Recover the amino acids of this structure.
């Protein structure tokens, strides 16, 4: 029922994606199988593979440096941004709204809001600016969000911040050309955990929280090792071990009717793939729903969203396909 509403933007989005998806294989040597993976530069693929499946703050920083040298396929100067819009009273309850300066029509378009990672106690939205910019360049409204960190904010306040941001957008999206009924939440790592809490556990959210149109959950730690919690997990979930099982997402899903796309990275640490497998199994076996899933080939934990806006469209194309197929039904 939304297909005519967004027809102009859909044509532009798919024209851009078609060009990016077809150009790289045509220019690539068939033996260069990394480039054939939707345009991942060979030197990037080699650098990521060298890290193996380990992931920590140092590897995250090195991965960011690797992608800082990869050119973007969009012009950041063509994007307009309204920064530091408050969706709550805390200084971290802010978001930035990105839109294309040249819009193709006056029709309201889907809104994609992204939330960063950081192990529950670190991180900021500077690491995901490229995501909001890129989707704005395709004609969407791209939003870059922050949330409060532990120990100042403890469970389940991260998920509640996602709910508050989505509710704010539901009220204000039309001011920026966004459709309040087509708001998609993207979260990576901790951001994916908070987004999953919002999506799958509505009973924990503030009364009157807006409903999202869909969610893209990228390598979320939907549970953790109760025998060896990290400092961030202790700070966020508290020190009452008996309460930990009821505070993670796995084993506690109560809402399953929101469309979801889930990813893990080929080079993810096992703690992320195990958490994904547990949640996916719960959704399929217990609730009888099958969310979309793909493995980000060649990527490590943080490179998935760092690739968005570059010649490597392996992640961004999946997100666009999910959004378009969801809004067209």
């Amino acid at each position: 029922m939304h297909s005519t509403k967004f027809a102009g933007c859909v044509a532009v989005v798919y024209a851009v994606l078609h060009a990016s998806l077809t150009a790289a294989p045509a220019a690539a040597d068939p033996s260069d199988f990394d480039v054939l993976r939707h345009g991942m530069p060979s030197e990037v693929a080699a650098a990521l593979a060298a890290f193996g499946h380990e992931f920590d703050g140092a590897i995250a920083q090195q991965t960011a440096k690797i992608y800082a040298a990869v050119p973007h396929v969009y012009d950041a100067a063509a994007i307009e941004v309204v920064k530091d819009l408050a969706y709550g009273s805390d200084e971290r309850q802010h978001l930035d709204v990105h839109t294309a300066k040249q819009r193709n029509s006056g029709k309201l378009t889907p809104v994609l809001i992204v939330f960063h990672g950081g192990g529950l106690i670190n991180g900021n939205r500077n690491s995901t600016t490229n995501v909001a910019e890129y989707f704005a360049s395709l004609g969407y409204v791209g939003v870059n969000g922050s949330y409060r960190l532990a120990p100042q904010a403890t469970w389940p306040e991260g998920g509640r911040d996602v709910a508050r941001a989505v509710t704010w957008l539901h009220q204000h999206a039309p001011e920026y050309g966004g459709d309040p009924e087509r708001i998609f939440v993207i979260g990576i790592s901790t951001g994916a955990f908070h987004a999953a809490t919002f999506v799958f556990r509505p009973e924990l959210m503030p009364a009157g929280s807006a409903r999202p149109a869909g969610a893209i959950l990228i390598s979320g730690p939907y549970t953790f090792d109760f025998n060896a919690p990290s400092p961030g997990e202790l700070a966020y979930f508290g020190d009452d071990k008996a309460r930990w099982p009821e505070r993670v997402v796995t084993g506690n899903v109560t809402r399953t009717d929101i469309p979801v796309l889930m990813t893990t990275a080929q080079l993810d640490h096992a703690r992320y793939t195990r958490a994904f497998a547990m949640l996916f199994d719960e959704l399929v076996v217990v609730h009888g729903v099958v969310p979309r899933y793909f493995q980000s080939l060649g990527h490590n934990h943080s490179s998935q969203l760092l690739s968005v806006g570059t010649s490597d469209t392996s992640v961004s194309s999946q997100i666009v396909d999910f959004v378009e197929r969801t809004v067209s039904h």
Summary: The chain is about 35% helix and 15% strand.
